[in-house]
Design goal:
The chain has about 80 residues and is an all-alpha fold. The protein has four helices and no strands. About 55% of the residues lie in helices and about 0% in strands.
């Protein structure tokens, strides 16, 4: 457990042999629901992606990398009627 992963859920996902991408996404979402602002979330996801980059074939690595891209992207308009 670390300051960036206080419950150790991200670290634990790397210890589960044969874990799937959907399972990793579920673990990531559980981790992401911990209270923190968007800037902190981006920073921590970036740190974790770098920390686990030595496991390029693990599905959690891809999810962490996706998160860093999505969290830094500009917000997109999601349809709906303009007023």
């Amino acid at each position: 457990m670390t300051q960036n992963d206080p419950r150790g859920v991200i670290a634990d996902s790397f210890k589960i042999e044969g874990i799937s991408a959907p399972e990793c996404r579920s673990i990531f979402l559980d981790w992401a629901l911990e209270p923190r602002d968007a800037e902190e979330m981006r920073r921590v996801a970036t740190v974790l992606a770098a920390q686990y980059s030595e496991f390029p074939d693990h599905p959690m690595t891809a999810i962490l990398q996706e998160a860093t891209v999505e969290l830094t992207a500009a917000p997109k308009r999601r349809g709906g009627k303009r007023r």
